[in-house]
Amino acid sequence: MSRVDVEQVLHLLELLDREAPVEQLAQVRAGAATAIAVRIRQRLSRYHRRAAGLSALFDTASDLAGLQGTDAVLQSIVRRARMLLRTDLAYLTFNDPAAGLTSMRVTAGSTSALFQQVVLGMGEGLGGLVAQTARPYATADYAADTRFDHTTPIDEAVTDEGLVAILGVPLRLGQQVLGVLYAGDRAEREFSTEEVSLLSSLADHAAIALESARLLEDSRTAGETIRAHNEALRRAEAAHDRLTDLVLRGGDSDQIAAALASVLDGGIIVHDTGGVELARCGTSTRQQDSGLVAESARSGRAVTGAGLWVCAVLAGPELLGSITLSGREVLSDADRRLFERASVVTALLLLLQRSVAEAEDRVRGELITDLLTAPDRDQAGLLARGRRLGVDLRERHCVAVAEAADPRRLRSAAARALPVHSLLGVQGDLVVMVVGEDQPGTLAQRLAKELGDALDQPVTVGAAGPVTGPPALARAHTEAVKCLRAMVSLGQRGRGSDSAGLGFLGVLLGDPGDLSGYVRSTLGPVLDYDARRGTELVRTLRGYFACGGNLNRTKDELHVHVNTVVQRLDRVAALLGASWQEPERALEIQLALRLHEIVATTRPGPCTS
Fold this sequence. Notes:
Helix content: 55-70%
CATH architecture of the largest domain: 2-Layer Sandwich
Structural class: alpha+beta
Number of helices: 21
Strand content: 15-25%
Number of strands: 16
Oligomer: single chain
Largest sheet: 6 strands, antiparallel
Shape: elongated
């Protein structure tokens, strides 16, 4: 070998050592040595690229392993793919086997909104073929490549993005193809085998990372589900203990309803078996849905309908009532079980209340019966029995009697409407109440309304009093019954009144010893005016009615001028109201005038009080 050849070979070795490009090596004229140096340089370049790719893959695998959440993994995949292959863009589509589609999920380097929203059918375009066959495909010029099933939407999206060269590889997990990972350029480009292998390796790493992210999310979801379930159980146990404690400490239906409304975050209504509302919290009054109650009683579970949840309150096979929950269209399993547990606690409460009420009602009912049937036999004993029940019969009490179409429900509703220190019993088809109040008319009106609203049917109430002592209570009961029967006969069902409220009819039915009370309620202003002024309005009224309302005959009867009669009657109208001459009112006034005359002749002094 000549000295020149040796120098050329040494120059080639120096270029190789400096990792000079192939072009520089090819310019050295060393014959076969140049060709060998070029091959060595190309092989070294491939090794370097492979080493760089492997290093990038290791970095990518490390990065993917540290990511949490599917979206973060997908974003990292497409960024790494674009960087490793030095392409204009990279993107990823996900398969939807049920719909037979693969749709764009993530892009990096894309500028086309149309491209970013493209959807491929399985087998359509390069990506559809990759998704269908689970094999990599590459094209240097997509638009001119006839190997793929071109469709207008896909071609338009590719054109809008300006894509020319595309490489797609499957994201596989076992035999399942999750999607397709792409790298693309906006100029023609032949993708080498090493590039296809590199992108496929990245896709394999990405598929594993995606599965790990999914499993992690599933694990988190499962953990949250378990925590939520445990929390629901804890809350249910605490609520059950709270409700049970309320019952054992003597709580009532209102407290149970309030506690349950708080726990379930809704409105609660408790009804008895007859549909009477026992308690309510957080909602307005509504009627019991008998259909849902029957369905719940048959199944033994809470049922839903019309936006409500209803649970029957059962004691064995016996229906005691129901609980209605509003404001919660959907109940979790835990809340539904809690709702059903509440019905068991409510059943316990109602049974306890019924036992106590039955015992107390029996005692109170017996006292009512003895008061009405034998008030004079043992007055001291009756007073003592009343005191044991918290009722002092020496105090002023009114007696009210009530009638409705359903006496059993009426009695139950009356027990809730009466003040604590009252007596309640049943005589025949009437409910009898002894209440410590002074206004029998007001009491009767209130009870008629409250009981009528509770039963959603007319309730008629007659009342009398106030009186003191057993004998007077028995007489007041008789008067109250007469008052009630009179209202029923007059077609006034659903009303409440005492005898005074019935006008002159009440005088006929009421206590004969209270005639002066009727006179005062009817003629009081006229009597007071005569007493203060020394006038004769009462005498004028008697003469006016005695003469049949004829003014001329009245002035002759009274020996005064007709104008005087007119003036006196105008004064009467001012005192009694303009309606005093209407038939019904006039009849009451005439009766009061006659009673006033009778009372005046049988008692000393004028009837002015």
